[in-house]
Write a structure and sequence with these properties.
The longest helix is centred in the middle third of the chain and has 33 residues, at 175-207. 31% of the residues are buried. The chain starts with 34 loop residues before the first helix and ends in a 34-residue tail after the last helix. It has a four-stranded mixed sheet with strand order 1-2-4-3, sandwiched between helices. By secondary structure, it is mainly alpha-helical. Helix content is 56%, strand content 4%.
């Protein structure tokens, strides 16, 4: 775990934090990418003419305007400004072996947030709300998260999503045009949420402190009140969210997540903890990981197969009522009507466990209760 050559090596990475961390020379982003994220990226990179199309599209995107906006109205991180963030940024690029350190800006915004955008070259932006909320090790994980986005090439597609979202608002008065754009936006958001899980893993590889990553996610969810929070209880919320309720709640979960670009915070924490305890993570820490030099040989078919296997495994192991129903039906289980009635037991007040025969010819599902539906957003 030596960092020999880390200091004073002429690469602009001097004066980085002194705590030694394992470095991953030549690491491919495939090492930490979520299977669904990785399969989409591999397919896009292999798509003939993809680069040409997006170079043409770049003329329509306000990237230059965004760069000028941050340069003129935010604070650029450097040795003279937010030096501690500059150290973290160079350290993260060193650990993930990202040769060109992307520009980083701090912008005034009380909402804790960070992003990595840009078509030609990525830029990283963090808000003052985030800088003021997190301690050094928590912030290091966030900086690593954004550098992971840069290494994966996420900034290109994130910029396109930002552009299309704004475009959808402008053409909302055109029914068919808006529907077409929103279909693309919805698909991109699904990918975006998986890319966040990938970047969380990159943040852990940079910070190499799972507790700090967990603290940061808890603070994003509940503010700077760690003395009032507990990691185990926070993770139990994720379990309760996944397993709780009936089919009605499963549908509401889908509606709640559709407009979001990020997964829910408790879900991110649970996903990261699971990955941190996995053999895949341990192999990376032991120095066994795919290299960038091998990316050109990556099979699109294999990536899609791995993604499909991941989703199938997720459906099979999920405790969500809808996913359990899908898994049962895929396994050949019968009695669809009875299963759906039990799944929507929340409407009857009798609970989903009962599947009694009808009395006096009445419908065993009963009528809806008077509880108003929960909002989707």
């Amino acid at each position: 775990m030596s960092d020999e050559g880390h200091r004073g090596n002429g690469t602009g990475r001097e004066n980085v934090p002194s705590r030694q961390r394992r470095r991953f020379p030549g690491i491919s982003s495939r090492a930490y990418e979520h299977p669904a994220d990785r399969s989409a990226l591999v397919a896009l990179r292999k798509l003939s003419g993809f680069d040409t199309v997006f170079r043409a599209l770049s003329g329509l995107l306000p990237e230059r305007s965004l760069r000028l906006l941050f340069l003129s109205d935010s604070v650029r991180v450097s040795d003279q400004q937010f030096a501690h963030l500059n150290d973290m940024l160079r350290d993260a690029c060193y650990i993930l072996d990202l040769e060109k350190v992307p520009p980083m800006y701090v912008t005034q915004d009380p909402q804790p947030n960070a992003m990595c955008i840009g078509l030609d070259e990525p830029i990283i932006v963090v808000t003052t709300g985030l800088v003021e909320l997190l301690d050094e090790e928590e912030m290091r994980a966030v900086v690593g998260h954004e550098v992971g986005h840069a290494l994966s090439g996420h900034s290109v597609y994130r910029t396109i999503l930002l552009f299309l979202t704004n475009l959808a608002i402008r053409v909302a008065w055109i029914p068919l045009g808006n529907l077409a754009i929103m279909a693309i936006v919805t698909a991109l958001r699904e990918w975006f949420r998986k890319s966040e899980l990938s970047a969380d893993r990159a943040g852990l590889l940079v910070g190499q402190d799972l507790k700090a990553s967990m603290r940061g996610l808890m603070k994003i969810a509940g503010g700077n009140h760690l003395h009032e929070m507990n990691v185990d209880a926070f993770l139990k919320q994720a379990e309760e969210y996944e397993a709780g309720g009936d089919l009605r709640d499963s549908v509401l979960k889908i509606l709640n997540v559709l407009p979001r670009t990020h997964p829910f915070t408790t879900v991110r924490a649970a996903e990261l903890k699971t990955w941190a305890e996995s053999r895949d993570h341990q192999r990376i820490m032991d120095g066994h990981y795919p290299r960038r030099s091998e990316d050109k040989d990556t099979s699109v078919t294999d990536s899609f197969r791995e993604s499909a296997a991941h989703y199938a495994s997720g459906v099979k192991s999920s405790k969500d009522p809808l996913m359990k129903l899908v898994s049962d039906l895929a396994g050949g289980a019968g009695d669809l009507g009875g299963r759906v009635r039990r799944g929507f037991g929340g409407f009857t007040g009798s609970g989903p466990a009962q599947d009694q025969p009808p009395r006096n010819g009445s419908d065993p599902a009963g009528g809806p209760d008077d509880t108003p539906p929960r909002p989707a957003d």
